[in-house]
Amino acid sequence: MEKLWDYGEASIAQVHQALRPERPLALSTVATVLQRMHKKQWLRRRSRGRQYVFRPNITFDEVRNREVEDLARRMFGSRVQSLAEHLVVSGKLSVEEVEQLCKQLRRVSDSTRTVS
After folding, report:
1. Alpha-carbon distances, residue 46 vs 9, 53, 72 (angstroms)
2. Domain residue limits at 30
3. Are 66 and 28 found together in one domain?
4. CB–CB of 42/5 below 8 Å?
5. What's the pLDDT score for residue 26?
6. What share of residues in the chain are helix, strand, coil (percent, to 5)?
7. In this model, does residue 111 exceed pLDDT 90?
8. Are 64 and 52 in a shared domain?
9. Cβ proximity of 57 and 43 under 8 Å
10. Is residue 40 located within the same domain as residue 65?
11. Are residues 82 and 110 in the same domain?
């Protein structure tokens, strides 16, 4: 997806070529992943000659939100709080990061009170 967000649109071969330095995948693997993302409606595609050209149909924020929700559902019974607790207990979040999150939560809470 990152390559398609960068390029706007690209063929399977173009995505394969762009990924090659970072991840030497087979062309068929790239094609399969792009087809699956198209099936999930994350990508749009159009024909260009004898090949498909893909472009994003979803933003990075939308993908991130869906993936976090899916992770919370699969691993934590849809309880995002349990996911956050896991990140804290496992040491994935530092004390500073937790304090920053608390500040953000207070700001969000304060702003929703003033709107109401």
Report:
1. 10, 5, 34
2. 2-56
3. no
4. no
5. 95
6. 65, 10, 25
7. no
8. no
9. yes
10. no
11. yes
Length of the chain equals 116
Domain count, the chain: 2
Position of tokens 């530092």?
94
pLDDT digits (tens, 9 = 90+) for 8-40: 999 999 999 999 998 889 999 999 999 999 999
| Distance in angstroms (rounded) separating the CA atoms of residues 69 and 90 | 20
Q: Please give the C-alpha separations between residue 21 and each of 18, 24, 45, 108, in angstroms, as whole numbers.
A: 7, 7, 25, 41
Q: Are 83 and 28 in contact (CB under 8 A)?
A: no
Amino acid 12 reads I
Cβ-contact 64, 71 below 8 angstroms: no
CATH number for the domain including 9? 1.10.10.10
Provide the pLDDT for residue 115: 59
Look at residue 74 in the predicted model and tell me its pLDDT: 95
pLDDT of residue 90: 93
For the stretch 55-103, pLDDT in tens is 999 999 998 998 899 999 999 999 988 998 899 899 998 889 989 989 9
